From TrEMBL:
Gene3D superfamilies in the record: Chloramphenicol acetyltransferase-like domain (3.30.559.10), Nonribosomal peptide synthetase, condensation domain (3.30.559.30)
Domain Condensation: 46-252
Gene Ontology terms, MF aspect: catalytic activity
Pfam families reported in the protein's UniProt record: Condensation
Protein name: Pyoverdine sidechain peptide synthetase III, L-Thr-L-Ser component
Database matches in CDD domains: LCL_NRPS-like (cd19531)
UniProt superkingdom: Bacteria
Length: 253
């Protein structure tokens, strides 16, 4: 199947259009949206377009924390630290993005999914004169190394036997605002199950994000991107007005 997709993508725009016409006569829509399939191998694979944007930004500003996604949870009551550690470990095993790094091979950026491994939960205490706010701020402002990972940091701040602060920080290339509540919900389910000596009954994941990224590339590169571009050119026209925004430097001619 992948060889067929690669063959279609290698065609010129005119050749793809001609192929689409021929297939349509046979009742086949070349541009139809196909279901997302699981990748055939675990080899390094293409980035989604959103990931590619994040990768380029990181290469320009590798020491920036602008795209860190932080979350601090204040935990009250007795805490089973080992159960929490196992819960995070289970999430990392469940979600490939939490054990993914990125690399550049020639002109192509790739994501590499690493095998699941044991997770060590770091437990800290406040230094003299340090506040919780300062601790959390320093933690979430630490930049990520997208090439070497990990791209999820989990630290536990112990305030007392009955009070802790759990700090989760991810890079936007592997997460977003929609994903964080899901992750917290699954973490709570895993923790509750771990304290009872069993595994959480989470619904198996039919696909991983890398599967979606490959599907997105194939879908757009087989002609959908050209179709959408042509549509918007037709809607907007060839000549666009110049936006007269206030700038700190003269606009180049």
């Amino acid at each position: 199947m992948q060889q067929l997709l690669d063959s279609v993508k290698s065609l010129s725009a005119r050749e793809r259009k001609a192929l689409a016409v021929l297939l349509k006569r046979q009742g086949v829509n070349l541009y139809g949206v196909t279901p997302i399939a699981v990748r055939e191998t675990q080899a390094p694979s293409a980035l989604s377009y959103a990931q590619q944007r994040q990768w380029i930004i990181w290469q320009l500003e590798p020491h920036s924390a602008a795209y860190n996604i932080p979350l601090a949870l204040r935990l009250h009551g007795a805490l089973d630290v080992e159960a929490l550690r196992r819960s995070v470990e289970h999430l990392i095993e469940r979600h490939e993005t939490l054990r993914t790094t990125f690399e550049q091979q020639g002109d192509e950026a790739l994501q590499v999914v690493h095998p699941a491994s044991s997770f060590a939960l770091e437990v800290d205490q406040l230094a003299a004169g340090e506040t919780v706010e300062r601790y959390v701020d320093q933690e979430v402002q630490q930049p990520f190394d997208l090439q070497h990972g990990p791209l999820l940091r989990v630290r536990l701040l112990k305030l007392s036997e009955q009070e802790h602060v759990l700090v989760l920080t991810q890079h936007h290339i592997v997460s977003d605002g929609w994903s964080m509540p899901i992750m917290v919900d699954e973490l709570m389910q895993c923790y509750q199950a771990a304290t009872l000596g069993r595994e959480a009954e989470l619904t198996p994941l039919p696909i991983q994000y890398a599967d979606y990224a490959l599907w997105q590339r194939n879908w757009l590169e087989m002609g959908e991107q050209e179709r959408q571009l042509a549509y918007w050119k037709q809607q907007l026209g060839e000549q666009q007005p110049i936006l007269e925004l206030p700038t700190d430097r003269p606009r180049p001619v």
